[in-house]
Design a protein that fits this description.
The structure holds two protein chains of two kinds. Chain A is mainly β. Chain A has one domain (20-142). In chain A, 8% of the residues lie in helices and 31% in strands. In chain A, the strands form two sheets. In chain A, strands 6-5-4-7-8 form a five-stranded antiparallel beta sheet, with no helix packed on it. Chain A has a three-stranded antiparallel beta sheet with strand order 2-1-3, with helices on one face. In chain A, β5 (91-98) and β6 (105-109) form a beta hairpin. The longest helix of chain A is centred in the N-terminal third of the chain and has 12 residues, at 20-31. The termini of chain A are far apart. By secondary structure, chain B is an alpha/beta fold. Chain B has two domains: 4-117 and 207-230, Thiolase/Chalcone synthase (Peroxisomal Thiolase, Chain A, domain 1), CATH 3.40.47; 118-204 and 234-352, Peroxisomal Thiolase, Chain A, domain 1 (3-Layer(aba) Sandwich), CATH 3.40.47. Helices cover 34% and strands 21% of the residues of chain B. Chain B has helices spanning 23-38, 55-58, 64-67, 86-98, 118-123, 138-151, 157-174, 186-190, 219-225, 253-262, 279-288, 312-325; strands spanning 4-11, 48-52, 79-82, 104-112, 194-197, 199-200, 209-218, 230-239, 271-273, 296-297, 331-338, 344-352. In chain B, a hairpin with a 5-residue loop joins β11 and β12. In chain B, α4 (86-98) crosses α12 and α7 crosses α11. The longest helix of chain B is centred in the middle third of the chain and has 18 residues, at 157-174. The chains are: A mainly beta, B alpha/beta. The interface between A and B is medium-sized, with 34 and 34 residues.
Chain lengths: 149, 353
């Protein structure tokens, strides 16, 4: 009776966006499996780097390289991962304070439910191919015995 | 800012899924009720209209424009929108009136969250380089905050469950629009399984469809309408860093500052309606506002009983105004929030005229 009209449609943006000198430096360093932060006006090291000091709002440009291991400051246990989550089996989100940083970052921790605790040591698990994205760090994992500060 | 009168308020039921009912159909009944209570016919009868909603919920740029259909497309009106909770549409309307460009305003907020997965949708409003690619959701971020409070011994799981128990009981007693209401004990709540530990499902606000609307005016205009009204004596909003690692998650510094600027401590607070989407956040907020046992907190049940995303903040102000207009109380405080882990907070002090 009536024909259903249809057409392929792709939503796209025909431009690229620069990440700028601060975020861009961080993402570029990730490609080399290095993690950098910026030093705030009060001397605290923010990882990932912040472009502007959250208190004084002044532009930050002093980079500090930090370790790819650190301590879990807080965590939650995702018993039922969502489709969008990076893992389809239970995992933790955590605030991880890397060695050399003063401000923790949000990322995933892959570990057993019983291993998770505040203060635990974790180390980054890097992607086989790094591309300059936050996901170059696949997750953090419990630090191997004998390592640490 | 000079005193501004809240003259009417209407809110829809909080429904988990409004089905085929679209945003315009959610908005129209509450607008009509808010206007009719004052004896106004339509948005032509106010000087300014402002709405609050989030295009991410509808998944399309400028989706909020469709909401304007609820007002009628012609003749033209002076109208604005905030991509925020409608509590901030109220704030914009107050500025408009204070500048002398309007004497009355209609404010509405709406959200139909059911078509998507709201915590996931909200993940895409986070930092686009550091967080959005991880798809870390709003419930998980709140759970990180709850753990900070529990680890430091600032609150216990019993305290969190007590907030939920009181919310459900208050909703049962006082709130015909609530989605979750009933009698449930702390023990029963704590016996439930953890969900995003340390949060249990009941620690998180439900996902709701609906809308709310309000009419405000200068005190002179409100008097001319001859209806009871409440007066906004103080209002302020403050924002903290988007970097949750840089914030002290155990307190709400922005709420503390907004409360000071809005003058919360200048008198007794009989009722407080707090926008706390997670149980532990109600405790953070009541402490930030300096409230004690003399204040009845969330007599409506708060948003743990039903959360109209983008309208719940306006509803908190409307709930307090309604208590004052009914003559139940003489002074109350309302709070609205936005962003992960209470990033942005608005505090309003309302008093009897």
């Amino acid at each position: 009776m009536s024909e259903r009209l249809s057409q392929q449609f792709e939503l796209g943006y025909t431009y690229t966006r620069s990440t700028g000198p601060i975020v861009g430096r961080f993402l570029t360093e990730l490609r080399q499996r290095r993690i950098v932060g910026t030093r705030g006006d009060d001397g605290r090291v923010y990882v990932p780097p912040m472009e502007f000091d959250p208190v004084t709002a002044s532009a930050l440009d002093e980079f500090v390289e930090v370790a790819d291991c650190g301590e879990v400051v807080s965590w939650c246990w995702v018993s039922e991962p969502r489709d969008s989550h990076p893992f389809d089996t239970p995992f933790a989100w955590a605030l991880v304070k890397l060695d050399g940083a003063d401000v923790p970052m949000v990322h995933a921790v892959c570990a057993g439910r019983d291993e998770m605790r505040t203060g635990m040591r974790v180390q980054a698990c890097w992607a086989e191919e790094t591309r300059g994205y936050i996901t170059d760090i696949v997750c953090f994992e419990p630090e191997a015995q004998g390592k640490g500060p | 800012m000079k005193d501004i009168a809240v003259v009417s308020f209407a809110q829809s039921d909080c429904r988990r899924d409004a089905g085929a009912c679209n945003e315009v159909e959610l908005i129209m009944p509450v607008i009509e009720q808010a206007l009719q209570e004052v004896g106004l016919r339509n948005s032509q009868d106010v000087d300014f209209t402002c709405s609050g909603s989030c295009d991410y919920q509808q998944g399309a740029a400028f989706a909020f424009v469709m909401g304007v259909d609820a007002l009628g497309a012609v003749p033209p009106i002076k109208e604005s929108h905030v991509e925020m909770d409608a509590a901030w549409a109220l704030y914009e309307s107050m500025l408009k009136i204070t500048m002398g460009q309007a004497e009355s305003a209609l404010i509405y907020g709406f959200g139909k969250s059911s078509p998507g997965e709201l915590p996931t949708v909200l993940s895409q409003q986070l930092d686009p380089y550091y967080l959005a690619p991880l798809w870390v959701d709003s419930v998980s971020l709140a759970a990180l905050q709850a753990r900070v409070l529990l680890d430091r011994g600032i609150i216990s799981e019993q305290d969190m469950a007590a907030v939920v128990s009181r919310s459900r009981a208050n909703a049962k007693a006082n709130n015909p629009h609530a989605q979750l209401a009933g009698d449930v004990s702390v023990e029963e709540l704590l016996a439930e399984a953890e969900w995003v530990a340390p949060l249990r499902k009941h620690d998180c606000c439900p996902i709701s469809d609906g809308a709310s609307a309000m009419v405000i005016a200068t005190v002179e205009r409100a008097r001319s309408w001859g209806r009871p009204f409440a007066v906004i004596k103080g209002i302020d909003h403050r924002m903290e860093s988007h970097n949750i690692g840089a914030r002290d998650l155990a307190r709400s510094a922005s709420t503390e500052l907004a409360a000071e600027k809005a003058g919360v401590a200048n008198g007794a607070v009989e009722v407080a309606e707090l926008y706390a989407p997670f149980s532990h956040q109600e405790i953070i907020l009541s402490r930030a506002l300096g409230l004690d046992d003399s204040t009845e907190i969330n007599p409506s049940g708060g948003v743990l009983a039903g959360n109209l995303m983008m309208a719940s903040g306006l509803s908190r102000i409307g709930e307090v105004a309604r208590h004052i207009m009914n003559g139940d109380i003489r002074r109350g405080v309302a709070h609205a929030t936005s962003g992960p882990c209470l990033q942005h907070n608005l505090v309003a002090v309302l008093e009897a005229a």
